[in-house]
Structure formats: C-alpha cells, structure tokens
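Handout, section B. The chain below has 229 residues.
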Amino acid sequence: MAIRSLANHQHHVAFESRSRTPQVKREAVLLTAAHLFLKQGYRATSMEDISRQLQVTKPALYHYFKSKEDILVGCYSHGITNIITRLNAADKAIGSGLQKTRAFLRAWIEVMTTLEFGQCVVTLDDNELSPKARKEVRMLKQRIDRTLRKRIAEGVEDGTIKPCDIRLVAFAFGGAINSIGTWYSPEGKLDPSEFAIAYTDILIDGVSMAPKPTKRNVVRSKDAAQKPS
C-alpha cells in the first residue's frame, strides 16, 4: 500500500507545548508509530525510531507507553475502535438486510483506505504480540465479524440476500477487504470514496437477490430511450 510521506506527519508538535494533555501526546505517539510500522514493518521499527520522529527522548516515550508492544496494541485498539465506530454508524442505515450490509462494507472499506490505524489492523501481523495481547486484539476483531454476520443474516431472512453459508460469506467479505492493504494505492484512478463504492458494488453483486439486467433488457431500454416522444 502506498504510504503517505512523513512530511504530512508532524505529530512532534504535540510535545512542543506543555499545555498539551497526556491524551493528546499519547495519540501523537500512536499516529507516528502506526505510520512507521506500516512503512518499515513492526520488527524493523524501534522505540528510538519513534522517539526520533517525535523529537523526544526515549525516556519521555516510555512515560506514555511501557513497550513497543504496548504501542502496537494501542494502534490495533484505535484501528478497531475507528472501524467499529464507523460500522455502528453504518449499522443505523434504514432498509433491507442487503442495504445494511452494503453500508457496513462501504464503511469498512473507507476505513481501510483512509486511516493508517485501520490499515494497521489488517496489514500488521498480530502474531508479533504476546499471547495475552494477541487475545485482546483478536477479541476486538471478532466484534467486526459478528456484526457483519448479523447484517448478512437479516438479508437472507428478508430475501434480499441469496440463501448462503453466512459464516463463509462473512469470511469472503473480510478476506476481500483485508487484502486491500496489500495492493490499494490512493494514487490510482479512483479516490478513496469512489473506490469504496466500486469495490462494495463488486462484493454485493455476488450475494444480491436483485435480478441482473439481461442483454435483451439493456437493448430494449436503449431503444426506448431513443424513441421520439
């Protein structure tokens, strides 16, 4: 995935004023670390790299996080919280199960293509974490899966989504969206919003019960449009 330039990540400013709250400074650490983890990889990024980018000493960094793993857990937590927040908003969509599933997938894709915390969730390997931290992160990820399955089930029940193995469809959607982190570039033909719509359409078309337009219907529609009024 294309990573934005560090020139756009001026998070060290948070440490230049004593009036900044600890929460703001913690956020600055996480934002900087997320960018470096994505650019260099988790293992290749040291606490010294993070402190250097923030223009603070390593002891100052340890004041906010006890270890690099602690920072990684924070990145995962922020990413999943961002995803859940947006998905909860999408979950309020009014309409059929298919429409709710569409809104849910689009919101998820938008997070993956616009937020580095969201990219961390799918790009970084949670096997780098200790068993305790890994369990915590995976429990957060499971919240996304449970919510998605619920939306798909609604669609199957109301007849807008094809009868299917709900678990398998949820895994297929999740795999397709998580793979975005390995190949998507915001420098492509579509901006993130346009991409989210187009990619959602591709996923939804595979499960929608809506009839697909036939070639004959398309020709008839064109003929009708060309007839003089």
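Note. Residues 131-158 form the longest helix (28 residues). Compare this with the example in section A.
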